[in-house]
Amino acid sequence: MSIHFSYKKKDLTKIIQDNYLDINIKLNRENICKQLVNYIDEYKLQYLYKQNENMSLTIKDRDEIITTARKIKSFIRSGLDTSKNIYENNDDLIYDAVYIAQYGEISSVRKAIKLVEETLNIKIPLIIPDKVQQELDEKQQLKKNMIPRLQVKTGKYYVSFD
């Protein structure tokens, strides 16, 4: 048997690192799979033969969700203009926003939900996986650290002019 195609190289390298396996993670996915098969029984990794449960979206579904998020952003930026036939009323907009809010790992979705919340003054619960939230928090912390701050140094300073 071989490892299911739904496991991407990134997933496999994380499994290798978590189990401290002696496999070079710089190899391509195919070679990693060939070497990882040898460790499956020893480290109880039989789940690799089945579809990846963490992979919730196919590429087609992801594109559809991104398109919906773009429609929402376009509708809001047009001033909620119903004459452009994107949405007939705000209820359709809110329905789509609630639907895509469960895919908070996609940046377009987060931006669209933020626009909806600001424009319509409603709160839509955005579901962001813990791993993505941790990455967002790290980026936010880096941005905060990059802001220049005033530093005051006290002491005696001697200035001489020649």
| Proportion in helices | 40-55%
Largest sheet: none
- As a percent range, the share of strand residues is under 5%
CA gyration radius, whole angstroms: 25 Å
List the uncertain runs: none
Number of domains: 2
Mean pLDDT: 89
Structural class: mainly alpha
Shape assignment? flat
- The overall strand count is 0
Task: Tell me the series of helices and strands, N- to C-terminal.
Answer: HHHHHH
User: Treating each run of at least 4 consecutive H or I residues as one helix, how many helices?
Assistant: 6
Distance between the termini: 84 Å
List the helices and strands and how they pair.
Blueprint lengths: L8 H10 L10 H8 L22 H19 L12 H11 L6 H14 L9 H17 L16
Helix pairs in contact: 1-2, 3-4, 3-5, 4-5
Provide an overview of this structure.
The protein has about 160 residues and is an all-alpha fold. It has two domains: about 10-50; about 60-135, no CATH class. About 50% of the residues lie in helices and about 0% in strands. It contains six helices and no strands. It has helices spanning about 10-20, 30-35, 60-75, 90-100, 105-120, 130-145. Helix 3 runs parallel beside helix 5. The chain is flat, with a radius of gyration of 25 Å. The protein starts with 8 loop residues before the first helix and ends in a 16-residue tail after the last helix. The mean pLDDT is about 90.
